[in-house]
Specification:
Length: about 600
């Protein structure tokens, strides 16, 4: 393997006091890729580690004088931790090691688990995201790569698996279930049950990713059940916003065991009652934690069936707030018992997904540890992965992206005429944004009938369009939007869930055309047009979803454009890019825009509206 095949970024695994053998620059020993049940404990390995447990041999590392959170008993106990071969050999006082480190009374908790995320949404390469989030204590990521699959199919999934095969954290995959999300989507690839079969026995595949096509589940669609049956003995994640009680029961009957779409405690409790584990989501656009945790506190609801997830969180928000650490901190600040918050960030998720080696500080568990200065503030002092200290100033070599995934925008240049939107109805449906949420509200407006809607004549209203970019089909759907607030230009994105066509919103056809053509030029990304010119662009050349630059460069572009977008009128409660990216997803209520036109999402699924 030649170094020219790798890009270099800033993260690695090092033991605090010795140089470790490195394979391909990743700091991991060959043959130590961890599957869903962890490394096999054979008798030879047991005997070696047990000698440490019994006090007969030195540990590789002893972390002394810590205050350890026991997620099983709910206690915080003064103890040391003995680590051998990446596992916890024991906790207590009478251990000795080749190396010993005094924690000086700091707290030690299990490494945090993100129960559901689309790492493509961070806009950086997979290992760049993992290395950044790990600094904040996240040592396990349960990834649904359906963004990559919708653009590039199995090649996109293989990219995620290959990129994360030697990450400084545990990265598991839930296979995308709905590619495309619905039959109304125009995406770049399909992913059938037959194609999924090759991944079923992959050691890092845990099951089937979020099942979004609720009507197909509830109606017993054969193609859908071919996927569900393939994973009947594995984990199946859900995506079930606002299902009525009977339909929610039918959804659970199909074997779906988790959901992250609950936006209220009442709905979350209905899911819990049906055996559906709730991942409480707190990301860049969707902020559901406060409502659900406040409901837990008011009701006294058992927290064993709750976990934390980010779903979609931009890299700059991770740098500013933290990752799962932010969810924990916010939950504690609302009054949740810290022990319960840390259980929700670790053992609850590990048990749900059958990750028997993760989520606790106890003999035989992987030594994924977070050392904290403060339990309530979640102030991270240091992080250990498999018993080795993570350091942000060391190198991690990242595999470069295949050339085939770097040219995914197949689209001829557009013109202002591409965005003509005739107004023919007495009452025109309007996509209305809900600040802090990814749901929208269906409203209507009495706009004057005309050949082409011109937003500059209607304060508060904008034109939004979805431009098909995978097959150069020429499909462009246009609609009216409210609540985005932009004036004086346009914003465009090739990140538009889940089919990832080019989504553009603006107050003039000229600005919208300029923005789309800029993304064609750079093969995907985010761009902002202001006052008749391109103000700034963040290229995302990897499938039109991710950058090949480091997080610093991504953050610089994003902050520059976000600040300008807010100056141009985008409300503070609306993320100019990630909120926009969800306005094309026809499985979330109530109105969405697709290349085929305006889509209404209700209890019976999505349907196109005539304008």
């Amino acid at each position: 393997m030649h170094l020219k095949n790798f890009l270099i970024c800033r993260f690695s695994l090092v033991h605090p006091h010795r140089i470790t053998h490195r394979i391909a620059g990743f700091g991991l020993s060959e043959g130590r890729i961890i599957g869903r049940k962890g490394e096999k404990m054979n008798v030879q390995r047991y005997r070696k580690i047990a000698r440490v447990t019994l006090g007969r041999s030195p540990a590789d590392l002893v972390l002394k004088n810590g205050r350890i959170l026991n997620v099983f008993s709910g206690e915080i106990l003064p103890a040391s931790i003995a680590i051998k071969d990446g596992l916890i050999a024991g906790t207590g006082e009478d251990f000795f090691g080749k190396e010993e480190r005094d924690l000086e009374g700091r707290f030690v908790v299990p490494g945090f688990i993100d129960a559901h995320l689309h790492l493509e949404s961070t806009m950086v390469s997979p290992n760049e995201l993992v290395s950044t989030a790990a600094r904040f204590g996240t040592t396990c990521f349960i990834v649904d790569p359906h963004e990559a699959a919708n653009v590039s199919g199995a090649d996109g999934i293989n990219y995620i698996l290959n990129q994360t095969s030697h990450s400084p954290a545990n990265v598991y995959v839930m296979l995308p279930s709905c590619v495309p999300a619905t039959k109304l989507d125009d995406n770049g690839a399909e992913f059938s049950a037959e194609e999924m079969r090759q991944y079923v026995h992959h050691p890092r595949v845990l099951g089937l990713g979020e099942v979004m096509d609720n009507p197909s589940v509830i109606s017993g669609d054969k193609a859908m059940f071919a996927k569900l049956c393939l994973f009947e003995k594995m984990m199946i994640d859900g995506h079930a916003p606002f299902l009525p009680e009977r339909e929610l029961s039918a959804y659970a009957l199909a074997g779906i065991r988790s959901d992250h779409e609950a936006t209220s405690f009442d709905y979350a409790r209905e899911e819990i009652r049906r055996g559906i584990h709730v991942h409480i989501r707190e990301g860049s656009a969707a902020h559901n934690l406060r409502a659900i945790v406040e409901g837990i506190l008011e009701s006294g609801c058992n927290t064993e069936n709750f976990s934390f997830c980010t779903d979609d969180k931009h890299i700059e928000d991770i740098l500013r707030e933290g990752h799962i650490s932010y969810n924990i901190r916010l939950a504690i600040s609302l009054g949740l018992d810290p022990v319960k918050a840390y259980q929700m960030a670790s053992i609850n998720t590990a048990r749900l997904y059958g990750l028997r080696q993760l989520g606790a500080i106890a003999p035989g568990y992987q030594a994924d540890l977070v050392v904290l200065d403060s339990l309530e503030e979640v102030s991270v002092s240091s992080v250990y992965f498999k018993g080795e200290l993570l350091r942000s100033d060391a190198e991690l070599r990242i595999r470069s992206c295949p050339v085939s995934l770097r040219h995914s925008v197949h689209l001829d240049p557009v013109s202002p005429k591409s965005f003509l939107l005739p107004i023919r109805l007495e009452e025109t449906p309007v996509i209305t944004l809900n600040p802090g949420e990814i749901t929208t509200t269906e409203e209507s407006a009495a706009l004057e009938k005309c050949r082409n809607f011109q937003p500059e004549l209607y304060p508060g209203y904008l034109k939004i369009a979805s431009v098909e970019r995978h097959k150069n089909s020429g499909k462009i759907g246009c609609a009216v939007a409210k609540g985005y607030g932009l004036r004086g230009g346009a914003v465009a994105s090739s990140v538009s869930h889940d089919s990832h066509n080019i989504l553009v919103i603006g107050d003039s056809d000229e600005a919208m055309a300029m923005a789309v053509n800029e993304l064609i030029r750079v093969q995907g990304g985010y761009t902002l047009v202001y006052n008749g010119a391109v103000y700034d662009t963040l290229p995302l050349p990897i499938m039109g979803l991710m950058s090949d630059e480091g997080y610093e460069e991504v953050d610089r572009h994003l902050q520059h454009m976000k600040n300008k977008a807010h100056e141009m009128g985008v409300p503070e409660g609306v993320d100019p890019f990630i909120t926009l990216s969800f306005l094309s997803l026809p499985v979330i209520p109530e109105l969405r825009i697709t290349p085929r036109g305006l889509c209404q999402v209700g209890e019976n699924g999505p349907k196109l509206l005539k304008l």
